[in-house]
Amino acid sequence: MRPMFVYxxxxxxxxxxxxxxxxRFGALPEGGRARLSVISVHALARAVxxxxxGPAEGLAGAVLHAAHPEPVAVAELVAxxxxxxxxxxxxxxxxxxxxxxxxxxxxxxxxxxxFDHFYDSSRLWSAVGPLxxxxxxxxxxxxxxxxxxxxxxxxxx
Length: 157
What we know:
CATH class: Alpha Beta
CATH topology: Rossmann fold
Largest sheet: 2 strands, parallel
Strand order of the largest sheet: 1-6
Strand content: 5-15%
CATH architecture: 3-Layer(aba) Sandwich
CATH superfamily: NAD(P)-binding Rossmann-like Domain
Radius of gyration: 16 Å
Oligomer: single chain
Distance between the termini: 25 Å
Order of helices and strands: EEHEEEHEEHEHHHHH
Number of strands: 8
């Protein structure tokens, strides 16, 4: 099973980095158009448990991308963070090359949120049952307070 970006209790990089970048730079690389595969810790745990306890017919050696069924644009991710007072509402847009030259963020991390990084998770949800339409916007509120309490500083690079 391969999760790309996991959010929720215990996340010390993904949401904290988005929040820090939004506060620090007030803009998103490439306008936040990049779409990402994200999954909540609860959805990931549900999938792991279902695979561990259920039949594994046809899954031997298969790569199962663990993500909510629909990718989420970085701009949407940051908008949800702003709704929960974890990031400012952004109005700026900066090109990747300009951001790379001006921002003190590692180029590999910057590219992860500047360009599409999403994968088809349908094989996973076919194997363990549907996620019932829960995406980032619907799932994130249960974690907002944890982030407010736990992630005040810039995450480690």
